[in-house]
Structure formats: structure tokens, C-alpha cells
Amino acid sequence: MKTINITRVGTVIGVAGMLGVAALAIAADQPVAIAATPSITDPATLQKYANVRVINATPEQPMAAESASSMSGMKAYVDSSGQLRGATQQEIEAEAAAASNAKVAAPAAARRSALSSAPAVFVAENGAQAELATDADMAYAVAVVDKNGKVKQACIEGQPNDKAALAVAAAGVEVDSHEE
Amino acid sequence: MKNKIYVALATAALGVGMASAAQAAATIVILNNNAANVGFNDTSPRAPVGGNPGTTLGQQRLNAFQEAANIWGATLTSPVTIVIDAAFVPQACTATGATLGSAGSTLRIVGLDNGRPNTIYGSALSDKIDQMDVAGALGLPNFPDIQARFNINLGTANCLPASPWYLGLDGNHGAGIDLVAVLLHEFGHGLGFQTFTNGSTGALSAIGGVGYPSIWDYNIQDNSTGLTWATMTTNAQRQASAINTGRLVWTGQNVTNASSLLSGFPVVNVSGPAAGGAAGGYDVGRASFGARLTATGVSGDIMPVSVDTVNGDGCLPFNAANTLAVNGNIALLSRGVCGFTIKVKNAQNAGAIGVIVQDNVAGSPPPDLGGTDNTITIPAVRVTLADGARIRAALTKRSRTKSGVIANLTTDPTRIAGLNGGFVQLYAPNPFIGGSSVSHFDVTAYPNMLMEPNINGDLTHHVIPPDDMTFTLLTDIGW
Question: Smallest Cα–Cα separation from B238: which of B432, B388, B377, B383?
């Protein structure tokens, strides 16, 4: 059983045209359309945890969300013979979950947008204020090989970027007395 | 109409999410921000490892992230979902060093309804304290709380090639870097285990051009002056306290109450009828492997092994004479040639109940013993070259199985490692170490804490007592 998500590429070349391309590709037993699909790890394939969810925020995902919002149901399911078929209940539920995930994933894009045109200060109605943290506010984990050839790990903060954090560690900062 | 259908679907799904969040301690979302086929989406096949069932590199990376996030999610309580914007990306690398990754709060926020006035909080803690999506009120709805970026190239050529990520979930990382342990530590910073105040200059962090203390600063105290960072009136005071080694402490009540989990300084007490001038207490370096030292300790005759300058003391399986000597006793070995875990494991296999490693270079205090081997169950310590020589001098009249010089590998209950004035010490070396000082527990804490600046090989994947005080500190600031 094969599934073709036409909502992603459909926005580029048109749904009707895509349907035709997909049908032709499958009929000719050419896996081009499917093999070319970018691979995103499906959260359903991951270990399940009580307090964690994984949501994909890849560039493809917000695009799917936009498509879903304006073209709900525009996904074609094709069986092994290349014939269109109806969606199963599982697939319908997966679509609903994907729509939900995309809604939550949207902040990633919003964040990128906010970062690119960030005002100096965000202000709430109650007077609360915030600034975006910078790379200098991040904590960097680093590992360096010491003079005895052993790897030492340390946590470095207050550095402008990852290169500076590594430079601090490589400069011989002795924060770990464990050695062999 | 279709838009309305979509909104209804999303709202229903969100409702389910909220319901499950109410049942859980806290829900954490890992926002996979990698592009297709990259990082979390790398489809390279992998065999399951250390309890991680993923069969692709991307799945294993995500499972490790989930494992660490779940430990925090099961520990924290918040009605607001915590979102971690995560990706594997290139980071600084050389053949001998690498930035493993970074994490931190995405926002610095002041003016919470239920928080301390004029005080800076991180994003996730702000949501917890005001019981709402604070970023949303700031015009950034559903904004991620924590950003996490980790090195996609670790373990490849020119990027610490001998130290790849260990993606197992069981802590058996060997020569690899335990991703779960690193994530627990860095997520801890992102959740609030840090001050935004600059320890190097003493300057408060500014929002809108105005400096404010961080919530941390109410609990950072200089025991020399009795002032907290929030009550200090000058940057110079904070700057000076940041290098007041041993006397910069955390005064939060919860951490102070939990500090009973810290042990006394590790020592070896030497006694016995043949001890002579060697009798007394010696400071020792502790091992990151094997049994932890206890107040009761492990006692036995000290028995040296025959010196092996070629292969190194204890580097090969013990011969019959050495096995007879150390069996049921405490083995005395010299440092050198091979790793500590090899020496101690060979001694353990020969029946030793403990190991003293004598340093092979002068210097004091004796450094700790590094290495990882979960099959080692006996305690091991290091003494200085000079102390080892003093002990050896008392062993000249030993039999093949007894020396009459008794060692007790133990802890000194009169000197608690990591405490000053009854408060847990923060890391405050002099000179100031940019990035490591202040926002960590001190390295003298024993057992090792997750939030020491060095990520030690003997850490468990726990964030609460009796193994750790990371979450305890977070409760002091409002978690």
C-alpha cells in the first residue's frame, strides 16, 4: 500500500496535474515520485513517553499546514495497483493529528520571523516585558582532549557562539579534575 | 468553511493534549526543526543500542531527546506545555575538541503577575509561575521556551572522531559522549538553572535598557559579606563574589534541606600495628567508577603489587603472587601506562576489596580517578606520590597475605564536600572562568551533581535526591 501526500507538492504544480503524474509513475512502476519525497522522521515510529511529544517543524510541515487549512481532504491514497482508494479511519486520524501538529509547529516559523524583525522589547498588556535571548545566553556543552589524551566535558556559558565556547575550553580551562 | 473544519480539528486535538497535560507532571514537546534527511530526519540505518529501539540515526537521536525530556517532564509540574525547539546542526569542531551543543531559554522576561517584581525569569518558568503562555501575552503565541542545538558531526573526522554520541538510554556510554546526560544538563539550564547576570562584570541583565536581577540572584550569596547578588548594590560586589572560591553559596531552603545527601570529603585513614609513621588520615581523589565511598568505609590490609615498570602496575591480569597478596585486601598500585579502570578491574578480579592508586607525579591535592566501567564494584582512590611513598615505607615487613597496615577508604563526616556555612557551594574559581563560574554547583560536591560545570562520567540520569539536587534548586526559584 502506498500513500502519496499531494498536498505538499500539489501547491507547486497543481493538484490535478499531480494526480496524473502520480498515477502515471505508479502505473509505470517508477518509484520516482515516492523516492524523491523528502524523509521526515514520523513521530509514530518513535519510542512512546508519557510526558513528551515530538512534532515536526520542518519547512515541509508548515507548508502542509497551510495546505490543510485551505484544502482539507486533498490527499490521495493509492493502492498497490495504482488505483485511487478511500482513506482508512487510521489515515483520517493521522491527518487530524498532523493538522494539530502543524498548528503547534507554526511557532517555529513565527520565531524565525520574530528573530528576523525582532523589536528590541516585547511588551504585554500587563506591563510584562521580554527580550529574545541571544546565543550569549545559551549554555554550551563542550568536549576537549586534554594533554593526557583523555576527553573532558564541560559546560560553558556567556560565550557569543559555539566557536568561542570551544575556544574557551581548548584554551586549557581546567574544570574537570577527573583524569586517567 | 474548510478553515473552520481545520480549526475545529486542531482545537479538538489541542483539547486532548491539555487533558493529558493535566494528568502528567508536565508535557514537553520536542519540535523537530531539522530539514528532511538531516539530523533528526537522518535515515541512515542503525542497530538499536542501549535500550534505544530506533533503527535510523534520526529516530535514535529523537529517542534520546525524548528520554531526557521525559525525565524532566515527569519531574516538573506546569499546566503549560514546554516547547523545545531542537535540531542537530554543525557546531565548532576540531580533531581534539568540539562544541557538543547548546541550550537555553529563548526569552528573558520581567514583570510576571505572580513572580518577584522587577526580576528576570526564563520562558518555561514564567509560564509555570503565571500559569499561562506568557510569550503569547507578549505577542509571541506558542513561542518555543527552550532552544537546543546539538552537534551533527560529532564522531566524524576532524570532530572528536573517537568520541561519537552515545545514543543508548542506559548510560553505558564507554568512550562515547552520553547524549542523554548532556541533554539533562543543558535542558536544566534552559529550564532556569542559570543567572542572566554577568558574573565576569557583575552587571545585571538588561531588558529595555534597564538592568534587573535574575530570579537566581536572590539565592546567590557571598558568605564573606552575607549579601545576596540581588541585595548587592554594585557590580563590583558581584564581580568579587564570583571569584570568592568556596564561599559563594546557594541559600535556597530546599537545596539546603537536601544537602544532607552530600558526603564528607573522601579520605583514607591508615592505622594498624605496623602502620608506624604512616598512620593518619590522607586526602584522596575519588573515582568516577566503582562503589561510592561511605561513612562506614571499606577496611583491609594494604598490600602492594609487584612493581611492573614495563606493563604498568595492574595493567595485566594479576599473577599468582599478586592475586594472593590482594585477595581480601586493599591493593596498592602505582599510576601509569594504562587507564585506572583497567588497573582496578584487574585488582577486583584478583579478589581485592578496594584499590589505592599512588600518583606517579608530584602534586597536591590528589586528582580524581577518571574512567567508566559499570562492572567495577569496589571503591578506588588516589593518593599523592608523597603520601603513597609514606604508606609504602610501612609495608616492608609484610607477609605474603597481610601487612598489618590497615586502610579504611571512607569519608570525613566533619568536612562535607560541597558545603560552606551550611549552604551548598556554587562554582566560583579564581580567576573567573567565563561561562562556567556561578551557574553551576561547585566541583567539590560529592557525590557528583548533574549541574557541576564538568559533566562527569559517573552521573546517573536522575535530577532529584538522593542522587542529585538539580530539580531541588529549581523548586527554590518557583518550579
Answer: B432
